[in-house]
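Hi W., the 4-O-methyl-alpha-D-glucopyranuronic acid complex you wanted:
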Amino acid sequence: MLKYLSLLVFCLLTTGSLLAEDGYRLWLRYDRIANEDLRTAYLDQLRTFRTGEVDTTTAIMQSAMSELRRGLGGLLGESIYPARAAQNSEGASLSLQRVGSDEVAAEGYRIEDADDGIVLSASDDAGFLYGVFHLLRLVQSGESLDGVSVAEAPRKAIRILNHWDNLDGTVERGYAGFSIFEWHTLPEIIDQRYIDYARACASVGINGSVVTNVNANSLIFRPDYQEKAAALAEVFRAYGIKLYLTARFSSPMELGGLETADPLDPAVKSWWTEKVNEIYERIPDFGGFVVKANSEGQPGPREYGRSHAEGANMLAEALEPHGGIVMWRAFVYNSDPEADRAMQAYEEFVPLDGKFRDNVLVQVKNGPIDFQPREPFSPLFGATPETPLLLELQITKEYLGQGTHLVGLAPMFTETLDADTYQDGKGTTVASTVAGLAGVANIGTDRNWTGHPFNQADWYAFGRTAWQPSLTAKEIYEEWATLTYDGDESATNTIVEMLLASREICVNYMTPLGLTHQMATGHHYGPGPWVANLGRPEWNPAYYNRADSMGIGFDRTESGSNALAQYAPEVQAMFADPKTCPPEYLLWFHHLPWDWNMQNGERLWDELCRSYQEGVEGTQWLAEQWAGLEGQVDSDRHREVSQYLQVQQREAAWWRDASIAYFQSLSGLPIPAGVPEPAHNLAYYKSLSYPYAPGIRPQW
Ligand code: GCV
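Structure:
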């Protein structure tokens, strides 16, 4: 008997610890509320549930009802079943109310503590779904519902994830395993992950998903793949999410056997029209295409002497009768050694303003180069009044420590969104100039979806920011940390502080004072500021740092490339003078002598070295903060994050030492007090390789 009892105890313990916290549930953890008073208070308010006249049989409403049952059932520890009229209509209850779109905008909702209980109102199904997630968020965070009065509507209509997932299951710049979209088992097998993915996206307001890589494969348009995509679209539809695909511009040739992909060729046009019609037969609410054209080897209209507008319009015309859109990426640059890469997207797209069809949006990365730890906002924002733009943000972490470094991206998102372009006078923030946000997803088959447990915060932050760009990074992280960890207020604050500080820490140990693109070749992991031998000039870190024995930095003022002239005069005034340029953008806009006197009185060289050191010390601070949370957050995730923080500390020191060793070989100046000498010589750092990054074939 004793033997069986101990076996039972063992099983319970091990099952308990296995299920303890593997991160799969993300922030949607609906554990029973531990505080009994609070739980009882919620129960009193939510015990009965009236759907009233609202039709709950539609796919989205079914999702909303099932989330409500799951969420409240878990949090309150009692099953709550919606009924048209509550069993006991006496007393307080939760009820649904459909209102007109003049009262609550599309996808929006209201949650109010009314006379007869908590009322959730919306004018469409998506609004109810989002409202349910908001209500659950309140209960999960322990917020009182007494007197609650919430009125929400998304500020941006397009809130979309871009997956760089390949049809072979790999993910470009993905650091959390393989693609969650299993093309070999679709359409028959509907993995629970698809549903949980859609739940998570909907919970933060994401309403679109591009399931294929922008480095596109035309096979996705073959009927068998379309069937598979249609199965995904059906799952997504029930969560208010539209499916989109990437369109390889040369598909009419590769798949259709045509001799050209010229967008003005009638045969090409009709191939796309038929293809689009075929897609809509299978996916009636198909969202449209994302296109990377004439960029990094991808085919495009320029091969036929046609403009990006002519290319985009041809696809847009085919999509227009069905309500589909084209998101045409502005991420283009050529390999002219004389050109400044930072200027090229603007040069290419501003002259096309007004030439795009109404259902085309131009998708612009946050900065003019490519998802660096810090870049100024792209000058395209606000510069195309006739052309709606989408802001493309990176959620995955190419150039940012990939899967291993703790770097919270919300401060970067908000830094871009809040930046004032002055294009239409003061207050023309980037946020105000864009029609929507696209985020390059960081999701994969890892059990916890994102690899590093803290990377979940970036997925969360993207959705919340896209819904409401005026949310601060602090507000978003407070929500996330409260929902994702069970710590008390001080533990939550520590997690929030870590996330808020981490991006600047990373900037300091990788690319301080406005340096950019200093990462090693190809995989972009680890430092390579000396690299100058790549086929294309603008792929070389040395092209960006322009360091020599005299100084460092990229002159983008009048005396250099004059990229600064692409910004509004007020922005130019902010950056033009190195004496007043904010230090975080100094070497982005200026080439300066090593002994340049910084605004704080420090010599540039010394400040550079100290910034690297500050970054390294920052990673030590992160590790100390986290160590202090032992016992306050679950042991599984505590251990995992601790391991990652060790890697980050080691690699931050690698970044500092390699960068200082290289720049010192040019400046010839001594390393200032407080900054250690590099642990090895420059030759050592140059000899290091990093053959482990996902997507990189290991070499002997
Ligand atoms: C999908 C960078 C990345 C590429 C990526 C490209 C893009 O250059 O290194 O992997 O390709 O951006 O955004 O298209």
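The domain at 160-472 is CATH 3.20.20.80 (TIM Barrel).

W.
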